[in-house]
From TrEMBL:
Protein name, per record: Toll-like receptor
GO cellular component: membrane raft; phagocytic vesicle membrane; plasma membrane; receptor complex
Domain called TIR: residue spans: 606-725
A biological-process GO annotation: toll-like receptor signaling pathway
Entry membrane topology: Single-pass type I membrane protein
Gene: TLR2
Role summary: Cooperates with LY96 to mediate the innate immune response to bacterial lipoproteins and other microbial cell wall components. Cooperates with TLR1 or TLR6 to mediate the innate immune response to bacterial lipoproteins or lipopeptides. Acts via MYD88 and TRAF6, leading to NF-kappa-B activation, cytokine secretion and the inflammatory response. May also promote apoptosis in response to lipoproteins.
Keyword tRNA processing part of the UniProt annotation: no
Predominant location category: membrane
Disulfide partners: 320-349, 399-421
Record keyword Cell inner membrane present: no
Length: 725
């Protein structure tokens, strides 16, 4: 239901908008015209933004069908006139912005009489809007915020704003204060918060008669981008006294065009700043600062002020006498100024700020933590101290502090370690954004510890922080924490450990994902807790990360693999034994050695006519019959026998290979004993490559006795093949 069409260079409202659209943003375009039919189908539209276009014409019934509209922004267009007919059906409208158009008045009739639910109204412009008349706001009874931009206001008809019975917040843009008091008279009894912007109060003069008898309800008064002189400042102080309900005054980005010489003015008749309890000054500009007086003439006005903020105004000193006059002061904020130890010594003098509880010196020019603590010993009631964003760099071993210190802010002070310098009475400590890599300091009363954006690798030891309830330790380099660590913090209610580089181990994930109560303790869980490793889950939320079985049960997996390997090796051994695998391996090695030798020995190296391969159990027949016959033949044959001709001490495999290589033929005496003999098998196989690879007839088979083919083992495949020839 959201249609975002801002900054699209549109020159008209797009066609085709339907009842499904609930929010339409067409701001920052070039639309010039709104017709009766442009929005007639948007019956469910609640938000319409037409800001910063060039609209000069809106037809009478353009918004007639938008009965659900709650937010309408027509600001900064070119509307020369406003019409009440635009708003007559917008019964539920809560926000209406008509700022920055070209109209001079709010129309001839009351524009807003039908807008009974309107809560925020912004009207006027910086140039042509010059009149506020009695009927302009008729029909409005309650507004949370009313903003009127009337820098060139020339006519204000009395009681024009009195029809609004209650205004929470009124923002007035007035260039000159001529009509300010007239407006103030009408609203002083119905307004809670008045904000005056872009006004030059050089000529402002307060008349006691106009307000003195009125029942005032204004509680807060803000001057934003307003210019004062010494004289007009005194007139404003008079206003504080007569508008008795004002409790808070703020000056934001204002300019005091004077030298602070109030001695000749009528301040002697003013004892206090009315009932003002809170005074806030931000970005105060004083062009003639080096001629400025010491303000001693207004010291007496500050006795009832309880809260003072002077921020980013180049304050380098609060005079001792002024500090002593601030007898009711409980809160003092001097952030972003030029305070140093030398000037702080004068400001925090004896009897200064006797009831001060909170002192903020953030981002000043303090450099010594030890000296700062000593200078503040005069503040007996001080409990909260903020000295963050100062360049302390280091922390001494011991320091002195006011006896009631409960809260200390040392964030962004570049310290790299903590020492016993910190007061033991602390309940809240902020040391965020420093260079700390550990926390081992005993603080028995500490309830809240803020230590984010440092270099800590683990959670602090709970024994040092027995009553800790809040720990914020995000953006460090912590990679894990355990249930035992969390349980050791017996009173911990909130832990913010997001933004760290978590190693998502199995133990950590099991703890983080199964502990339902963890979500109630961890701040920003689960979105801010993400894995940094292992790499395949990097960037995933800890809550969503999943690891494989091998990662989470590595010992069990390794044990299982080892067992499987052992069983495999055992099985292999059994198979090798049953299937003579070792024999095959030995034979393969010998065969490879044989293959590396020359395929045919030189003729001069052949010493025997034949090598005889036989089983030892057949030796009688071989040696007494066959050998005798062949060696005594005519001509005689020279035979090689292992008993007689093998070289003593030489590996038997090498003897077999050499004997075969040095013989013309190899005689195999086949029998069942031969088949069962491994050495006979070696001899048969080593001669095989000559028989087949060299394609010769080097093998001679003699069948000593009939051999059943089934009796020949399967591994003797070559013998079985030869037996078939």
């Amino acid at each position: 239901g959201v249609c975002d069409g801002h900054s699209r260079s549109l020159n008209s409202i797009p066609s085709g908008l339907t009842a499904g659209v609930k929010s339409l943003d067409l701001s920052n375009n070039e639309i010039t015209y709104v017709g009766n039919r442009d929005l007639q189908r948007c019956v469910n539209l609640k938000t319409l933004r037409l800001r910063a276009n060039e609209i000069h014409t809106v037809e009478e019934d353009s918004f007639f069908h938008l009965r659900s509209l709650e937010y309408l922004d027509l600001s900064y267009n070119c509307l020369p006139n406003l019409s009440s007919s635009w708003f007559r059906s917008l019964y539920v409208l809560k926000f209406l912005n008509l700022l920055g158009n070209l109209y001079k008045t709010l129309g001839e009739t009351s524009l807003f009489s039908h807008l009974l639910n309107l809560r925020t109204l912004k009207v006027g412009n910086s140039n042509s809007f010059t009149e506020i008349r009695e009927k302009d706001f008729a029909g409005l009874t309650f507004l949370e915020e009313l903003e009127i931009s009337a820098q060139n206001l020339q006519v204000y008809v009395p009681k024009s704003l009195t029809s609004i019975q209650n205004i929470s917040h009124l923002v007035l843009h007035l260039k000159q204060p001529v009509l300010l008091l007239d407006i103030l008279v009408d609203i002083v009894s119905s307004l809670d918060y008045l904000e005056l912007r872009d006004t030059d109060l050089h000529t402002f003069h307060f008349s006691e008669a106009s307000i003195s008898e009125m029942n005032t309800s204004i509680k807060k008064l803000v001057f934003r981008n307003v210019q004062f002189t010494d004289e007009s400042f005194v007139e404003v102080v008079k206003l504080f006294n007569y508008v008795s309900g004002i409790l808070e005054v703020e000056f934001d980005d204002c300019t005091h065009d004077g030298i602070g010489d109030f001695r000749t003015l009528a301040l002697d008749r003013i004892r206090y700043l009315g009932n003002v309890e809170t005074l806030t000054i931000r970005k105060l500009h004083i062009p003639q600062f080096f001629l400025f007086y010491d303000l001693s003439s207004i010291y007496s006005l500050t006795g009832r002020v309880r809260r003072v903020t002077i921020e980013n105004s180049k304050v380098f000193l609060v005079p001792c006498l002024l500090s002593q006059h601030l007898k009711s002061l409980e809160y003092l904020d001097l952030s972003e100024n030029l305070m140093s130890e030398e000037t702080l010594k004068n400001s925090a003098c004896e009897n200064a700020w006797p009831f001060l509880q909170t002192l903020v010196l953030r981002q000043n020019r303090l450099k010594s933590l030890e000296k700062t603590g000593e200078l503040l010993l005069t503040l007996k009631s001080l409990t909260n101290l903020d000295i963050s964003k100062n360049n302390f760099l280091s922390m001494p071993e011991t320091c002195q502090w006011p006896g009631r210190m409960k809260q200390l802010n040392l964030s962004s002070t570049r310290i790299h370690s903590l020492t016993q310098c910190l007061p033991q009475t602390l309940e809240i400590l902020d040391v965020s954004s420093n260079n700390l890599d550990s926390f081992s300091l005993l603080l028995p009363q500490l309830k809240e510890l803020y230590i984010s954006r440092n270099k800590l690798k683990t959670l602090p030891d709970a024994s040092f922080l027995p009553v800790l309830s809040i720990l914020r330790i995000s953006r460090n380099i912590i990679n894990t924490f355990s249930k035992e660590q969390l349980d050791s913090f017996q009173q911990l209610k909130t832990l913010d450990a997001g933004g760290n580089s978590f190693i998502c181990s199995c133990d950590f994930l099991a703890f983080a994902q199964r502990q339902q109560a963890l979500a109630r303790v961890l701040a920003d869980w689960p979105d801010d807790y993400r894995c940094d490793s292992p790499s395949h889950v990097r960037g995933q939320r800890v809550q969503d990360a999943r690891l494989s079985l091998s990662e989470c049960h590595r010992v069990a997996v390794v044990s299982a693999v080892c067992c499987a390997l052992f069983l495999l090796l055992l099985l292999t051994g059994v198979l090798c034994h049953r299937l003579h695998g070792l024999w095959y391996m030995k034979m393969m090695w010998a065969w490879l050695q044989a293959k590396r030798k020359p395929r045919k020995a030189p003729r001069r190296d052949i010493c025997y006519d034949a090598f005889v391969s036989y089983s030892e159990r057949d030796s009688y027949w071989v040696e007494n019959l066959m050998v005798q016959e062949l060696e005594h033949f005519n001509p005689p044959f020279k035979l090689c026998l292992h008993k007689r001709d093998f070289v003593p001490g030489k590996w038997i495999i090498d003897n077999i290979i050499d004997s075969i290589e040095k013989s013309h033929k190899t005689i195999f005496v086949l029998s069942e004993n031969f088949v069962k003999s491994e050495w006979c098998k070696y001899e048969l196989d080593f001669s095989h490559f000559r028989l087949f690879d060299e394609n010769n007839d080097a093998a001679i088979l003699i069948l000593l006795e009939p051999i059943d083919k089934k009796a020949i083992p399967q591994r003797f495949c070559k013998l079985r093949k030869i037996m078939n020839t």
